Amino acid sequence: MPHFEYRRPASISEAFNARENEPDSRFVAGGSDIFLLLKKNIIAPDCLISLRAIEELKGIKQIENRVFIGSGTTIRELEKSELIEKRFPALKDAAINLASPQIRNVATLGGNIVNASPGADTAAPLLIYNAAVIIINAQLIERVVPLTDFFKGPKQVHLQADEIVKGFALEIPPPSSGSTYLKFMKRKAMDLANVGVGVMLDLAENGTCSDIRIGLATVAPTPIRALKTEAFLKGKTPSEATLTQAGEIAAGEISPIDDLRGQAWHKIEVIKTYIKRACRQACARSGK
How far is it, in rounded angstroms, from Cα 122 to Cα 202? Predict the structure, then answer.
């Protein structure tokens, strides 16, 4: 591993000051991803600036119809949060299935998103909850970007060198809705997703989908919303035939590649099945 200096600021202002004094530096959240890059000599910054001691970047709190999650909140905290379990069950699904408890104790929500992996476990759930990314710069000016616009490509996000992600704002779904996240992987534990599917749906009194959002991971250069599939399902009863057709539409929205996780043709077939499964489970969780 290359030699580097290590800074541990206690505030956002101190973090930006450290960055100004160390031009060849990188911000690091939990470190579960960046230290792998260091070990493989993929990156070799002169200095790492840890964000772990900054309390402003931590916590889960509800304000009216939104919940704010600090970027420094660990995956383990998401897993154990009663508020997340009650309001955002798909995000809890993702947390439980992310790596091991040891990794979840240090990995953060901000790190998982900013790393911009196409298969980031928390990305699809955040997409179905209409998450917005709260970004702050060195002048302590904030801006808000919808998560759908935040990803530029694999390992690329719309974040400037003098900016960090402060947190995420999630819309609380209606009490009558249900949501879930399904992760297809080769092994039963501690594996990356071959395919990830998140679904949030709300059923009207007549049994039709009054609202539905579908987030997909590992099937395109970035995590995406399946907008055509959503449009098809709105206003329809989620019958077996309808969900089968929805799976076919979703398969046409993705652009998977052959990689270590699986072959493209197989991911397409998995999507067809997992769209149906995720919609069924979301229906079941809605209680309708």
Answer: 21
Residues 269 and 206 in one domain: yes
* pLDDT tens digits along 13-43: 999 999 999 889 999 998 877 877 888 888 8
Please report, for the domain that includes residue 221, its CATH number. 3.30.390.50
Query: What are the start-end ranges of the H helices in the chain?
Result: 12-21, 34-39, 75-80, 82-87, 89-96, 101-104, 109-114, 123-128, 147-150, 227-233, 240-253, 264-286
pLDDT tens per residue across span 211-232: 999 999 999 999 999 999 999 9
Number of Cβ within 10 Å of residue 282's Cβ equals: 29
123-141 b/e (C-beta count within 10 Å ≥ 16 → b)? bbbbbbbbbbbbbbbbeee
At 107, which CATH number?
3.30.465.10
